[in-house]
Amino acid sequence: xxxxxxxxxxxxxxxxxxxxxxxxxxxxxxxxxxxxxxxxxxxxxxxxxxxxxxxxxxxxxxxxxxxxxxxxxxxxxxxxxxxxxxxxxxxxxxxxxxxxxxxxxxxxxxxxxxxxxxxxxxx
Length: 123
What we know:
Blueprint: H1 7-34, H2 63-87, H3 94-117
Helix pairs in contact: 2-3
């Protein structure tokens, strides 16, 4: 029945594709059946409720907010990597401890850089 070694791979690929597309198709069908479109002037307005907008909708954010977020993510990922290391610390070799020490020192260097540049000061 399976003359090609890629047959099972193709079956799994189409199964994964169907697994991802089936909920999307069902959601679309549900929306078409139970929530029919009722366009009118009020529904097609820019804002259906609330106050009229004033000025331009384009708002620039300070880049410092993005730096806060990136630094938070870096140290959050550090915590994810340090937890398994702390769990098996007594069973590790010296090389593994040196590798983790290098990892932590790189993160400390990044923290020192951010501190020196004034990224951590909230204004």
